[in-house]
Structure formats: C-alpha cells, structure tokens
Amino acid sequence: MSILNSSTLINKRKIINDPVYGFINFPASRVFDIVEHPWFQRLRRIKQLGLTEFVYPGARHTRFHHALGATHLMSLALDVLSVKGHEITEKEAEGAYLAILLHDIGHGPFSHSLENQIVKVHHEDLSLIYMNELNKEFDGALDLAIKIFTNQYEKGFLHQLVSSQLDVDRLDYLRRDSFFTGVSEGIVSSDRIIKMLDVVDDKIVVEKKGIYSIENFLIAGLLPYKSDFLIDC
Hints:
Hypothetical protein af1432, two-stranded antiparallel ribbon, two-stranded antiparallel sheet, 4 strands
C-alpha cells in the first residue's frame, strides 16, 4: 500500500468527540466519503430544532450532529444483532449505515418549521432525491442503502432500525435534544435498549427484560410535547 493510500485510509478511520456519546468513529469508509460531500456538509448549518433556540438557548445543535449520532447507534445495534446470531453482511451493514446517515439530508433551514409552513414537501422525499443523485455520483454505491431506506430490501428489520416506532433515529434525537436543551424528560437509556434488541420473523423485537426501558422510551417521546418542548424527528 502506498503512503498516500495508507494516509487516506487512516484519515477515514478518524474519531469524533460527540458530546452525547463520547468518542465515535466512522463505521465504514464510504460513510466518511459521504460525510465529506458538500451536500452532507450543509447539514452543519441546519439546526435540529429549528426555532426552538429562541426558547431554549442551548438548542443550537444541527442535523449534522444528529446524523452522525444516529449512525453511531446503528453500528451498535448491528453489532448486538450480529452477536445474537443474525447474519448481517458487511455490505448490508454499510447499506444500513448510509441509509440512516442520509435519512435527514433533505432537511432545509429551520427543519420541520420550513417544510410544514412554507415548502409543503416532506424532508424524506427530498432525502430520497439526494440519495439517488449521490448514488449516481458514487457509481451505484448507495443501491442497497436506498432499498433499505425505502423498505424494498428483503431484510425488513434493517428498515425498521432506520424508520419505525423504535428506531435509532428516535433513540438519538431524544437524548440529543434533551442534552442540548437541558430538558430531562427526553433522556432515555439508548445503550440498554439497543442491547435488548433482537429479530424474530424479520421484525425488530425487544427482550422481555427490556420492557421497562421501552416504557420509559415511549413516555420520554410523549412528555416533551405535553411540556411545550417540541422535539424534532
């Protein structure tokens, strides 16, 4: 391997100090490539909670933060499921990483405040457009990610991890939004929930001993709305 290639590979393995989870890394080199793309970098300027910072001054975190955090949780979830005997190939894992990494790339300024009041176009529709264009640019590298994102892949549980009532998207934004606003109602034990995950009949399930963590997760998603603190998914 040349010095240049070696340096590039090491660069793709760099770690990020996330304020919520601590040190995290890129689970696949293709994830690094997408993160470096200008279309993804624009998420650094898209606030996760839109106008919420006018009420909670600390809520200045971005979709960039959230996408990296959700990808980190996806890597943890796939590791847990693999240890429990479910076959997840390297290609499938990469597809799941890219699907969750790009699930919010369609968000514009002010996040949901924009799409609900002005544009009237759902961000997931725009995310799919971005993903298709990136797939052309990366010579079909996102084929599987798009299938997982649109629930067209044979292993449906991978899509559930991206978008369902119990997905890594929600697990991240509940903790992250609570952290940056200082509101404790949304704090959930994402580590425990992920360790309790399993797959039965191609569906994500939770071990019986994890039921109390799930109850807390459901309540955490409800309380912020009742307390006038709007979390943003």
